[in-house]
Write a structure and sequence with these properties.
This is RidA family protein. This protein is α+β, with helices and mostly antiparallel strands. It is built from two helices and six strands, in the order E-E-E-H-E-H-E-E. Helix 1 packs parallel to helix 2.
Length: 126
């Protein structure tokens, strides 16, 4: 059974998709970018601020499904410049315990929605 997960604490979808889908005990989040859900503005002051906003948006989606970062089993990180990897990784890593961190891939892409620098999606299980 499929359940749409929605929260006002993360940016509203800007296309034909949901913030997340819960199927059984598994949550599939859509990719989050650094949109501030209160203002609708992009947070692009620095790659650290941008990544922090992305993680805050993901946290809100996880919480809407009664989950935390401890439930995350897989992450996909898309970045526009691999030179930003260490800064993105430092912020991302601060949300996880290294002992049970999720599986992950990080991929450099040519372009992301709204010309942001980072987009992250996750899969989590209760």
């Amino acid at each position: 059974m499929k359940k749409v997960i929605t929260t006002v604490n993360a940016p509203a979808p800007i296309g034909p998709y949901s913030q997340a889908i819960l199927s059984g005990n598994t949550l599939y989040t859509s990719g989050q970018i650094a949109l501030n859900p209160e203002t609708g503005d992009l947070v692009l002051d620095s790659i650290k601020a941008e990544t922090t906003q992305v993680m805050s948006n993901l946290k809100a989606v996880l919480e809407a499904a009664d989950m935390t970062f401890d439930n995350v089993i897989k992450s996909s990180i898309f970045i526009s410049n691999m030179d930003d990897f260490s800064q993105i990784n430092a912020i991302y890593g601060s949300y996880f315990n290294e002992v049970n961190a999720p599986a992950r891939e990080t991929v450099q892409v040519a372009r992301l929605p709204k010309n942001v620098n980072v987009e992250i999606s996750m899969i989590a299980v209760k």
